[in-house]
Amino acid sequence: MKNENSNTYFSNEALAKFVSAQGKTIEKVICHLWQNKLNPNEIFEIIDNVDLLFTDKQKLTIGCNEKGDGLDAIDFNYKTAAIALENEFEGKIKVYAIDASTTKMWKDVIGKKLNAVRISRDGELYLSNAIRLDFENELREIEVNPIDGIIIDYFEEEDSYKKLND
């Protein structure tokens, strides 16, 4: 059973950022990874956020909201974050920027237009648990998990319409 109080929603500012990115051509994808080496025997990495860079030089960064219980369109400065983590954790927690444009996950969307950012609606609000990115019918889903951070996956729409004689 769904707990209505656990829902988190996108702000109007985040929704505006998503709308402004629609129709733009993707040029590059950068993933920012956090690496935790507090315990050298158990190094832990998660995706902290994803930069979608467009040919018109606009950037859309998708990451966790401040509470970590939903996604958000965030402002992220990699250099500032890397320095702050280095100072605070003395090198035991680091952030890395990885060009993911040539990875299996993203290579098929480079050069394609972001047709739509799809978000689930809850009444008048939009749930921030996941988004679907439609790049000319190449679909990707981004979700947030409290333990695993940002999760990126392929998304395949199921054909909910069946022929009458099936």
What does this structure look like?
- By secondary structure, the protein is mainly beta.
- The chain has one domain (8-154).
- The chain has helices at 12-21, 78-89; strands at 26-36, 44-54, 59-64, 71-73, 93-99, 114-118, 121-122, 125-126, 130-135, 138-145, 149-154.
- The chain starts with 11 loop residues before the first helix and ends in a 12-residue tail after the last strand.
- Residues 159-166 have low confidence and may be disordered.
Nutshell version of this structure?
This protein is mostly beta strands and 166 residues long.
Which key terms come to mind for this protein?
166 residues; mainly beta; 5-stranded antiparallel sheet; 4-stranded antiparallel sheet; 2 helices; 11 strands; 13% helix; globular
